């Protein structure tokens, strides 16, 4: 389900009813924060960086709540009109020494807060699951780095890595949930981001397993699921150092097309072995079962949103009124829909995928069924053709034939995933304690009042809007870079620096109006006139499969950054990997089908020889470049692209000698650049200290016998 303002506003009565609350009771007065900035006693401005009010003697202020950090200020030092967003006021209870381990009642509160989110936006469930893997899967046991350490949530550059593309919404919502939970009047906790990420995956897959249902429905099975969620083990420390290089330990979908389909399966199998087994430390069975998480969710943006599709029908966000079904249907598909017994016979008969149009580098699409699969998925279907990787298909067969076996093995592997790189002793939730003057009422949402619910849903509206904007920033930047490179004889006009828009004052977290998506206005500074006539183009210059149907520029207009987005993509940190020297003259698209760099980019690409890397069957309609004006950066970009600077980052023939990886992570086009994501390649060049707020060192939990999260 695509979340939008209308859907969440219309969901309010439903959610309120589910929680047993009369929605009419809530009014503006109910939503008054427990403490306003003006009610705080004045303290001097401290100017420290902060993430929450806890880090400050007074108030932590950020331009928007999804900025990685803000600045501590004293309430008397700043005019309210210049404050865009403040963290919610501290809880009314005396929470002097928050615990890193919640008690069972506090876990109940977390479940209710998460449930409120997913009732409105089911797509969060698979996205949280993916996010948890992308945090933990950074673990390299050989180098002993990465792991389930919260870096994905705490260290903003992590989410700018192409491997983590499109995780803004799940990460924004988890930040909100963590804040909401910690600041609830009935809680006194300071859990780590690492814990929240891993709990989110456990929550999602537990909720969607067997019969997906709301965890506030009060049925015996939903109560049983709540109880199982309370067996989660807490206490992962957040890493103080985060390195974007660690994303290299995540499996990517190999993109080489050399050697045909059978060879692609071999390469993909090797990728799973090298990353998930050799580095992460999973067994072949654990890797096979964990990738079964693809039984829920959708390939949303990797191939362009217009080609989004689930792996299996029951994985769609709207497969049931309560979201996707988490079961063995992914493995069942690989066994019973892909009926070939080995990769070679599959290569000559790719049914059930459309052939030949359904096959793309690293990706199989069935247009008629509207489903997608990656090479790494198909690698689980067949025995290996050589000893380069284990026989994943043996496990696939066993999971396909037994859902209970799948679920048990999955939850055991998920538990292991949540411990990758974690040395601290993990502990279960403690017995309910009276930490804050009153217990959270256990079960079925009993402790959330109308104001809580309305605030949570309002935050979801904001985080969705900011995530949309972040994604559109990436997409707009791709178009901008491509146009710049394909119009070499024209002096590309640098965007004129604009004054930073003054942030709007907002009531902290209680803004119930959905965030308005701005409409981009044409800006003459960013008008792009192609150096050659659009009629010269017989194929699109936009190398994304999403262009199989004409771009709806009316739609993309609405995704432009707003003045409120005072920190859009930090272009200083980005390195474009897309352009190649050969792209400095207009491409004759009659002869070439792609602008994507290939591994052979150590010398200029001979476009006459290049093969299609990301073509789409229907890319026959030329893009009207005049229309792309609307995708150019707008005045709201507080840091316009320095075109002179970015030019120097283009891969050049001099890159034929080894790159000094101490200085640059990678400026060289890599084989992975054959997927469109890589236009979005961003790399921080040096590890930077994380913004992590070190949690209290006081684990107050009582040691209980380790409970497993096995089904
Ligand atoms: C070989 C290993 C893997 C590869 C190559 C891979 C790749 C991908 C890709 C390309 C997407 C689509 C992203 C998008 O366009 O929105 C995706 C989505 C997803 N991945 Fe994986 N993945 C792997 C393993 C895993 C594992 C181990 C988990 C969890 C334990 C996982 C959970 C998910 C989920 C739930 C989604 C759907 C997200 C959504 O609906 O937005 N993946 N994966």
From TrEMBL:
Residues 485-673, 687-711 are annotated as: Disordered. SUPFAM superfamilies: Heme-dependent peroxidases (SSF48113). Residues 130-444 form the Plant heme peroxidase family profile domain. This is Plant heme peroxidase family profile domain-containing protein. Belongs to the peroxidase family. The keyword Lyase does not apply. Residues 535-673, 687-699 have a biased composition (Polar residues). One of its GO terms (molecular function) is oxidoreductase activity. Keywords: Oxidoreductase. The keyword Nucleotide-binding does not apply.
